[in-house]
Amino acid sequence: MNAQRLSERLTRVASYVEKGAIVADIGSDHAYLPCYLIHHQLAIKVVAGEVAKGPYESALSQVLAEQLQEKVTVRFANGLQAIKRDDFVDTVTIAGMGGPLIATILNQDIERLTTVNRLILQPNIHAKAIREWAILNEWKLVAEEILQEDDKIYEILVLERGHMKLSATQALMGPFLIIDKKNQVFRLKWSKESAEWIRILKAIHGAQISREVEMKKHEIEEKLKIVREALES
Asked: Helix, strand or coil for residue 233?
C-alpha cells in the first residue's frame, strides 16, 4: 500500500469523500489516504492528524516525498485537536480504530466539528458505539458498507447531520447492512461474533454469579437473540 494505491479498505473510505472536500484525516498514520485524496482530485485540502510521534514523522516524510506540502498539512495533535477553525474542514475521516475509541475522539472535541457536514468512519470493531453516538449528537447514517480484507472484516459508516432513530437490531447490525442479509461477509461477521459470545457464555457459566456477571450474561443473550432473529427472518 502507498499513496497511489491504497488498501481496499481505505479505497472504499476514500470513495465516500465528495469531490472538492476539505478533509481532516484523524489518526492518519503514513498520510497515505490524504495524499491519495489529493492525487485523485477528491479533496482540495487535507489535514493529517497524528498523536504518535513515529507515525507523525512518517506522515511528514510521505507528504514531502509526494510534494504535496501545499495541500496536505500534517499536525501532531490528539484527535480532533488537529483541526483549526480557519481550516474550514467539511469532512472528517477516522479509520482503523475501535468504535468506542472513535466515539470518544468525536466526543472529546465535538466543538471542532462546527464546519463539518460529513463523517466517514471505519471502525474495526463495535460499530454500534458509533451509531449510538450519532443518535445522541444528531447525526444520521446515509451509507454503510461491510467488506473483508486479509481475513479481517471492516465496516464503513457515513454520517451527515440530522436526526435518526434506530431499533436495537439496527443499532447493533447496521440499518443499511441488514437490508442485504444474504451478503456473505455480513453473515460471516455475525457468525463469528455469535460464536465468540457463546464461548463467553460458557466461561461465565462456570463463574461465580455476581450482579456484574449476570448483567453481562443478559447483554450477550440479548445480542445473540437479535442476531439469530435478524438472520433467520
From this structure: coil
Sign of the CA dihedral with 137 first, then 179, 98, and 26 last: negative
Task: Walk along the chain (233 residues) and give the pLDDT tens digit of each residue.
Answer: 666 779 999 999 999 999 999 999 999 999 999 999 999 999 999 999 999 999 999 999 999 999 999 999 999 999 999 999 999 999 999 999 999 999 999 999 999 999 999 999 999 999 999 999 999 999 999 999 999 999 999 999 999 999 999 999 999 999 999 998 889 999 999 999 999 999 999 888 766 778 888 888 899 999 999 999 999 87
CA atoms within 13 A on the CB side of 72: 32
0.90 exceeded by pTM? yes
* CB 181, CB 231: distance < 8 Å: yes
Place of cell 461474533: 193
Rounded to 10°, the helix 211-232/184-205 angle is: 150
How many helical (H) and strand (E) elements, i.e. helices and strands, does the chain have?
A: 8, 7
Contact, 55 vs 24, CB < 8 A? Answer: no
